[in-house]
Structure formats: structure tokens, C-alpha cells
Amino acid sequence: MLPSLHQFTTTPLFGVTLTIGAYGVAHRLWLRGGRHPLLTPVLVAIALVVAVLHVAGVGYADYLTGGDLLSFLLGPATVALAVPLHRAGPSIGRMLRPVLMAVLVGSTAAMATTVVVVRLCGGTPQLEATLAPKSATTPIAIVLASSTGGVAALAAVVTVLTGVLGAVVGPGLLRAVGIHDPRVRGLALGVASHGIGTSRALEEDPLAGAFAALAMALSGISTSLLMPGVLALLG
């Protein structure tokens, strides 16, 4: 690597520029591709960033000096989801009870089925604890995996992959089974694929995005409260 290029790649500006640029290219490809699920911007942006880092020979630690700045903005971005929630307040109020029940059942099922599948495949209790919180947001999944004997780094990777898979496959799968109500679609995407699924729901419909944001928040809470009990019950 050239000395000047090396100096640039070790500055925060490199990580910020690469991430924003990759997402901009990915979003344009997604629009030009007719919003095809396989061209979901998050998925394509991840692939572009990985490819650039590999070709340029840049280590993850160097990239993270700028990537961390964008990670910090996840907090304000999450808080900003209160805007569509506020706008959908009347619709949410009328469906609060079924929403709570759906999130509770969905988050419990996500954890329980993961543990059962890992066990049937011969996985260890450590792997069960790592994968169980995969449908919660990444920060919650990391903390839960660490506190229950799992591997935090692997939990983070699997959680992101779960979100991307849900954003890519979820909308088409919901249409295939005849689910077109934006409220139900939002709930499903929020519970199954957390923040990435919520961003996909927002692209579909503001009402779907509001219900996805609510589902993501409630799912994170229920997963945090119920995961130790689910692991103990199935263990």
C-alpha cells in the first residue's frame, strides 16, 4: 500500500467515506434494479465495504476508526423512529393488545426454535446462548450472549445476518402467504429482523415502518427478559 493511501486509511475519514459511499452506490443500484430484494442496500453495501477493504488490504481495526463514528449515530437514528410511531399513534392504540401478544409470541418463538434447531444439529450450550438472541438488536444480542455464556462477537455477526436475511426474504415471503396489511407486515419484520427489517418496512410504507419500530423495541425488551428463562426451560 502506498504511504499516502496508508495514512488515509488509518484516519476516521476513511471509514466514514467508505461506508456512506458504499451505501449511496447500493441504494442507487437498488432503485435502478426495480427494488429487487437481492439488491437490498444494506446487503450490497456490506459486500462493497468488504470488497474494498480486501482489495486495499485495510484491516478491520483501521476501518473501525471511522466506522465507530457512524455506529454512534445509531442511537439518534433509533430515537428518530419515534416520529413514525407518533404519527401512527391512533392505529397503534387500537391494536395495542394484539401487538403485545404478537411480539411476545414472536420473540419467544424466535429464541425457542433457534435453541431447538441448534440442539438437534449437535450444537453446544454456548452456541445456543450465542444464537438465541439473533432477532433482537445487535447491542442487546451482544449483552445477552455474553451474560448467558455465549460468544459476543459471533452473536453480533449472526444478528446482522438475521436482519439482512429478513429484509431480503421477508417482504416477498409475506406476500407469498397473502399478508398485505402494512401493520402486520411491519410487526413481522420488526420482530424477526430488528432494525434492518424496520428500515425495509419504512421503505414499503410509513405505517408498516411505525409498527416495525414498535415491534423492534418491544421484541428487544421481551427477549432480554425471557431469554434466560427460555434457555433454562429448554436446558
UniProtKB/TrEMBL annotation:
Membrane-topology descriptor: Multi-pass membrane protein
Keywords (A to Z) from UniProt: Membrane, Transmembrane, Transmembrane helix
InterPro entries in the record: CidB/LrgB
Main localization (coarse): membrane
Gene Ontology, cellular component aspect: membrane
Domain of life, per lineage: Bacteria
Pfam family, one: LrgB
Protein name: LrgA-associated membrane protein LrgB
Organism: Luteococcus japonicus LSP_Lj1
